[in-house]
Amino acid sequence: MSSTNATGGQEAAPAKPEEQSQQPQQPPKPEEAEESKEPQHPSGLTLDERFALARSVGEECIQEAELRLLLEKHPQPIAYDGFEPSGRMHIAQGVLKAINVNKLTQCGVKFVFWVADWFAMLNNKMGGNLKKIKKVGAYMVEVWKAAGMNMDNVEFLWAQEEINKRPNDYWMLVMDIARRNSISRIKRCATIMGREENDDMPAAQILYPAMQCADIFFLKANICQLGMDQRKVNMLAREYMDNKDVKKKLGKHKPVILSHHMLMGLKKGQAKMSKSDPDSAIFMEDERGDVKRKIRKAYCPEREVKDNPCLDYCKHIVFPKLGKMLIKRPKHDDGDKTYNTYEELEADFITGDVHPSDLKPCLTDAINDILEPVRQHFKNNAQAKELLKQVKSFKVTR
User: Fold this and answer.
1) Would you say 275 and 269 are in contact if contact means Cβ atoms under 8 Å apart?
2) CA distance 101 to 98
3) 40-65 burial string, b = 16+ CB within 10 Å, else e?
4) pLDDT tens per residue, range 44-76
5) Do the Cβ atoms of 197 and 233 come closer than 8 Å?
6) Which helix (H) or strand (E) is 101 found in, with range?
7) Is 0.85 topped by the overall pTM?
8) Which of 79, 138, 145, 327 would you call most buried, defined as having the most Cβ atoms within 10 angstroms of its Cβ?
């Protein structure tokens, strides 16, 4: 994978001896100094700052040079994420997504959420019941509003509605992608639906990857900002752009892939959370007692960082959201300690200065503080309260 320097610049070559002046350099005239400055971006951030902020969203970026060029040249790039309304929202989909969206909109990016109702039906979510799927989609939008997502440059588009507005554009894209790829290539994308390549899938789920690939071009997205589990279909979109006639029609620039981290499940050996296993994840409107119980039971091996979900929550949820973390250590000679970076906390955990019995209660407090506005929204807003009641009554189907 290619990587570029964050500044994207080169050091100037040293002046040749004959070029070196003995005269002291004069300061530039005011108008010259103004011209040499980088044009002011509406965000107030420099290009370097915007690139660093956007890049921090992704565990992986394909490609960094393309992301930087996009931020430099495009007045308002479009990032997209498609989500299936498939049940209650867990903390990664809620808090982590809000953090990432806020970073990108701060950089001047417009964020489009593709509410993938038809996709959820194809993937048999909510038993394929489209009415239930739409209810879940409305609930998810309410969660993000309460979780601190800045909605100024955010748009929610429902797949069924948008596709039906321009059906010829959409289905021509889907068919073109399908005819250019083999069944085996499409089946390699099965993991985007939470399936395995060798699963016995209905034909609808063969159609799904070609549709998801088409979404990117249908929405004119410049950035695919989805999880690492969606990488294969995003790469399919970049491969599609290798066709000369496609490039001529859609433009020369491939979509940038900015894949965020997949938060671990709370149990030992769970690479990611599962909605079908309620104790593997914290849900956005979990009560305080639920959070305490789940984290108390969570896997957290002493002095081990690898595959430790409690530290994973600290790194990707607590520090990005709160900026610091207080660890109360009643049995420690030095007493309580406030950590301003995750790296400091990790270092003390490795040495044993922070024990799992110190970490878990403080992680519980931090998560509960983060979730409290969401709880209050679903308790005090009548519409949100009714949506949650309905969603909780729905059976989650794989």
Assistant:
1) no
2) 5
3) ebeeebebeebbebbbebbeebbbbe
4) 899 999 999 999 999 999 999 999 999 999 999
5) no
6) helix 97-106
7) no
8) 79
